[in-house]
Write a structure and sequence with these properties.
The complex is a heterodimer of chains A (about 350) and B (about 270). By secondary structure, chain A is of the alpha+beta class. Chain A is built from 8 helices and 21 strands. In chain A, α2 runs parallel beside α4. Classes of the chains: A alpha+beta (about 350), B mainly alpha (about 270). Chains A and B meet through β6, α2 and α4 of A and α7 and α8 of B.
Chain lengths: ~350, ~270
């Protein structure tokens, strides 16, 4: 059982607030992704949990034990860095054995555990290789094995696949997920790639400017983004700035009935939820461009004031540039003051 | 497959360098093994080891060889003990006055060296260090500061911080990280600095002469007095060849221990 609890944790560098009063509890065996653009504080948060930065305020506990002021070598955490950070003057075996030797385990025990972990990450028999003789993916697997061999309570992954190519990244992502579930290890994973977060996580924490925007399972983050920022950051999203008047959202000739009070509002519609129909008369918008992807097509729409939207349609051949159209959002959300005040889903 | 084109510029440079470097060395080496060589003959009239016997038969030569080797070893060890921790501090720690202190180490090399030496000699005279082995050690230490600080600072700075952090992560104390990760990573470059320090001390003449003479005489100082006092070229030539030996061994050692890449990196900073 390993539960990670983060309470009101802050970090300031000079006058910069990197992390502001952050709260999160990661359950035993759970994999949580910290997702956000660069500078959102996600890496700083991870480094505070690993002990490489000291929190300016707040508390971090692992299984109820306070670790906030404990140096990294005394924490039950294992970190995998983006740049794998393998020790190039040691071979693979010695990289993995280093931490075990520091724990003064018997030689046989060290050999057994190193070989078992190498086998788990699919690198059995690679012990005598030097790190530079390995491919990028293999190096990252060794880095993962180096953390796992010590059986940490909490596994911390800091954008571990960022330097790998797309294909390899997807494969390693699946391997990490399998391994994490098999070992049941509590894991915190930092990434700026939404695909990675959506594919891996039990829950996603979306961060922005050192604050939490939303903490939810992937489907919730995608289907019910808590703020316009999350809506725009995860997946493709049309965000239309407008105003609500007498029960209808207005923006440059486009109107949509919404049951909310009058005032400024942001309408958020995903391209796959924005249906378009050929307008009988002038129409609220016109087709700007059609891009055919075979299985589906993306229609670029231009509103009366030049604002562009995207709609995903099944058949590209029905639409031509310049065509007058009307918009019929099937599912949408209305935001005001950074909060969703109305959601609709006419499936 | 294209045959590589003949690089005439390269050949010209190589030839010019060979002439400039190898030819004088060849002349000195020839002189060392010459018994008789009178003008206008192009090659010596008589080769032989007469002057080797003469030089190696002298007690002061053996004393100065011992002095030089001891001096170079002691200076290198003390310099390493002082400079390596200092270099690590400069590379990795933030402390007030860091930059000013860093440049003060190098300032000694910004003045004409002899002026600085004379000033130091004045202080040493008051301290009773003139003519003592430890006086020479001190003056040589000053000379090694430049590369024993500058090169290791560059070496420590180029060690990936994440490597050190991941060592902390698996349970190593900061001291253990330095010993098991940072030092081996910076090792080849630091070896280059140690080598420079040893060879530099071994060959340094002005300071050794000013502080040490006449009681403490290193091999280069002895060579100068030979050349000044004896109008026989062979004495100087034999000592020159003797003086090549340590640097030659050092270079062979360097090639074995240090890959050419990391050696160059040490100088490139």
């Amino acid at each position: 059982m390993a539960v990670l609890d983060i309470r009101d944790v802050s970090k300031t560098f000079g006058s910069v607030h990197a992390v502001q009063r952050f709260n999160l509890t990661v359950a035993d065996g759970e994999l949580v992704c910290l997702l956000g653009p660069s500078g959102s504080g996600k890496s700083t948060l991870l480094r505070m949990i690993g002990g490489f930065e000291t929190a300016s305020g707040g508390q971090i506990t692992i299984d109820g034990e306070h670790v906030t002021r404990i140096p990294p070598e005394k924490r039950p955490t294992g970190m995998v860095f983006q740049s794998h950070a393998l020790w190039t003057h040691m071979n693979v075996f010695r990289n993995l054995a280093f931490g075990l030797k520091l724990r003064r385990l018997p030689r046989d025990e060290i050999r057994r555990r190193v070989e078992a972990v190498l086998d788990q990450v699919g690198l059995a028999g690679y012990g005598q290789r030097m790190t530079h003789q390995l491919s990028g993916g293999q190096q990252q697997r060794v880095a993962l094995a180096r953390s796992l061999v010590l059986e940490p309570k909490i596994l911390l992954l800091d954008e571990p696949f960022a330097s790998l190519d797309q294909h390899l990244r997807e494969r390693l992502r699946e391997e990490v997920r399998d391994l994490q579930q098999r070992l049941g290890i509590t894991t915190l994973f930092v990434t700026h790639g939404q695909d990675e977060a959506l594919a891996l996580a039990d829950r996603i924490v979306v961060m922005r400017d050192g604050r939490t925007e939303q903490i939810d399972p992937p489907d919730m983050v995608y289907r019910a983004p808590a703020t316009p920022f999350v809506a725009g950051f995860i997946g493709s999203m049309n965000l239309i700035d407008g105003a609500v008047q007498n029960g209808a959202f207005h923006h440059a000739g486009f109107t949509l009935a919404v049951p909310v009070a009058d005032g400024p509002a942001i309408l958020a519609v995903r391209p796959e939820a924005l249906d378009i129909v050929q307008a009988s008369a002038a129409g609220a918008a016109h087709v700007h461009r059609v891009t055919d992807f075979g299985a589906h097509a993306i229609v670029d729409i231009e509103l009366g004031d030049g604002v562009r939207l995207k709609s995903q349609v099944p058949d590209a051949r029905l639409w031509k540039a310049g065509m007058a159209i009307d918009l019929q959002p099937r599912a949408f959300a209305v935001y005001r003051d950074d909060v969703a005040i109305h959601r609709a889903d006419r499936a | 497959m294209d045959r590589p084109r003949t690089d005439w510029t390269g050949i010209a440079f190589a030839t010019a360098l060979t002439l400039l470097i190898v030819f004088p060395l060849l002349v000195v080496a020839t002189w060392a093994f010459t018994n008789v060589w009178r003008y206008p003959s192009v090659i010596p009239q008589e080769f032989g080891l007469r002057y080797w016997h003469a030089v190696l038969g002298r007690a002061d030569v053996w004393t100065s060889i011992t002095t030089s080797l001891t001096l170079a070893t002691v200076v290198t060890l003390i310099s390493a003990a002082i400079c390596l921790p200092a270099a690590y501090a400069f590379a990795r720690l933030e402390f007030p006055g860091r930059n000013i202190l860093f440049f003060s180490f190098l300032a000694g090399h910004a003045f004409p060296k002899f002026g600085l030496l004379v000033a130091i000699a004045g202080i040493f005279l008051n301290l009773g260090l003139i003519g003592t082995f430890w006086g020479v050690v001190l003056i040589q230490l000053v000379g090694t500061l430049l590369f024993m600080i500058w090169i290791p600072v560059a070496a420590f700075q180029s060690v990936d911080r994440r490597m050190e952090e991941s060592a902390r992560d698996v349970g190593a104390s900061p001291l253990r990280v330095f010993w098991s990760i940072t030092l081996p990573q910076a090792g080849p470059t630091i070896a280059a600095a140690l080598l420079l320090s040893f060879v530099g001390t071994f060959y340094e003449t002005e300071g050794a002469w000013l502080i040490g003479a006449p009681q403490v005489r290193t091999l280069p100082v002895l060579m100068i007095s030979f050349i000044n006092n004896q109008p026989v070229i062979q004495f100087g030539a034999v000592l020159s060849v003797l003086l090549w030996v340590p640097s030659f061994i050092a270079l062979l050692f360097a090639r074995r221990v240090i890959g050419s890449g990391s050696f160059a990196r040490g100088f490139g900073g």
